[in-house]
Amino acid sequence: MVSVFAAGKYVSWGVVSISLTNLLVIIGMIVVFVLALVIPFPHDRDQSSDGGDA
Amino acid sequence: MSSAPSATGGGSWTAGLRDRMSRTVPEGQLLPDRQPAYVASWIYVFGVLTLAGLVVVVGSGIVLAMGGATWWHTSSLGHYVNSVHLWSTELFFACMVIHLWGKFWMAAWRGRRGLTWVTGVVAFVASIGTAFTGYLTQSNFDSQWISGEAKDGINSIGIGSWFNVLNPAQMLMWHIVLLPLAVGAITVLHVVMVRRRGVVPPLGDEASS
Fold first, then answer.
1. How many structural domains compose chain A?
2. pTM over cut 0.80
3. E strands, B68-138, where?
4. ipTM above 0.90, yes or no
């Protein structure tokens, strides 16, 4: 059972203090950003030869 | 018999508006069905995901507005719609920030796209203001605590007398009327600028734009 009145967990590093939840969200966004750069985008088979330039 | 409309419009306001629109966004670019090859990357998806998130945010916000400010406290349906509003806002911001990262690292202001970049920045700032006033309209102890913390910051920049974060009714109006209108208008302008200048090409490939 999680108490809604409990204080959240915080990560502190010098003057920087951030809630663990917010830190995980930011890390997740960075992971999604990197995956968006490296995962190949699906192509239509008939457009793969000419690059589909407009 | 009426004569065929002239290409120049003959000075009527409708023709003038049509000419202005066609000069703002080149013909065929408003809703193109093909894009340059470099657009085939997942990083280009986050702009339209942000738009999709905004549609859900506004849609769920309209339903919440019909139920009233305290509806979500007393109705399970209201609570569900409020949760949709919250989580679509979270996804809206996450997608917008990833979109921002992608555009920043590809220097998306190149090729006379400065106004596209600036309208995106303004849309981001206006969205933050809209979200913050949303925190103040929850009508619970959370919004009460946040407004108590926010008042000192707002007063320190000298605008507390007309932007009173301790006034829930005023913050509700900013959240559901004024700021959404601003975000909607700047978003339309941003999309028009994207369609006008096209998607920015990769660095070192400016000739293909």
1. 1
2. yes
3. none
4. no
Residue A21 domain boundaries: 10-39
Residues of A in CB contact (< 8 Å) with B are 25, 29, 32-33, 35-37, 39, 41, 43, 51-54
Count of beta carbons in the 10 Å neighbourhood of residue B123 = 23
| pLDDT (tens digit per residue) in B136-155 | 999 999 999 999 999 999 99
B103 φ, ψ to 5°?
A: -70, -35
Interchain CB distance below 8 Å, B98 and A39? no
C-beta neighbour count of A31 within 10 angstroms: 10
Does some domain include residue A31? yes
Q: Is residue A1 part of a domain?
A: no
Q: Say if the Cβ atoms of A29 and B34 lie within 8 Å.
A: no
Give kind and range of the element (H or E) at residue A13.
strand A10-13
Helix, strand, or coil (residue A18): strand
